[in-house]
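Lab manual, section 2.4: Encoding a predicted structure.

Procedure: take the sequence of the chain (280 residues), apply the prediction step described in section 2.3, and record the output as structure tokens. A sample record is shown.
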Amino acid sequence: MIENFDLEDYVRRVLAEDLGEGGDVTSNHTIAAVAKFSAVMDTREDIVIAGIGVAAAFFEALDPGVRIEKLVADGDQAPAGTDLMRLTGNARAMLAAERSALNTLQVLCGIATMARRYADAIEGTGAKVLDTRKTIPGLRALSKYASQVGGATNHRMRMDDGLLIKDNHIAVNGGDVAKTVAAAKAGDHGLQVQVEVDRIDQIETALAAGADRLLLDNMPPPVLREAVALVAGRVPLEASGGIDLDTIRAVAETGVDYISTSRITMGSEAVDIGLDYALQ
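Recorded output:
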């Protein structure tokens, strides 16, 4: 079960988008309505699985009698050539659902695979990799699910999950950090107040104002180490901005608690998964 996600509605909308009003006209004109089809879904590259149940739901929506054998589970690492699913059912229905199922699974596995790479890159440092709210609008629940399955930690699913004071919030308040933080902490919300800083000289001001957590924005590793030493564990520190697989290890080794990156959800590539006819 994916939290805050209506699978039935998602499947309905995606199929409606792909089938249009006329349905799969190719299959409808070339394959008998009663024809059966057996197929196997496999990966053509090394991946982390995410969304195998979502993919199955497309076939089940068009053929309630389809027989599906899931051969992997979300979170599994599947080497190239691994069979992911075997299916037997109505040929027209299976072929009509194929693209929607594959598109979804390819994207989700791509996100999970990328998340695993980032998590593995900082293993042993004590830091955690966070995803962000930078996702395709309307697909955040799916993207965040895949990210978590891959090994990243979900961070701020929605804007009401936490207070993050950025430079624009402070600018609207005349550049007054103390005033902005005080206003945030005065609210009856029970949430931590995080403040974004991009210079060392802003740190003590933010802490004095009552920040519960700091976002260290676009700071190179030497500056991050200075920030870690200055804060000395008083509040959790999150590094963000321009971080990729080549640089994340150096960032983690500065001693920050968290590293957030949008590359997991916005920079991952869909993986190569196919569905092919299988002899019985």
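Check your result against the sample. The chain has two domains: 7-119+268-277, 124-266.
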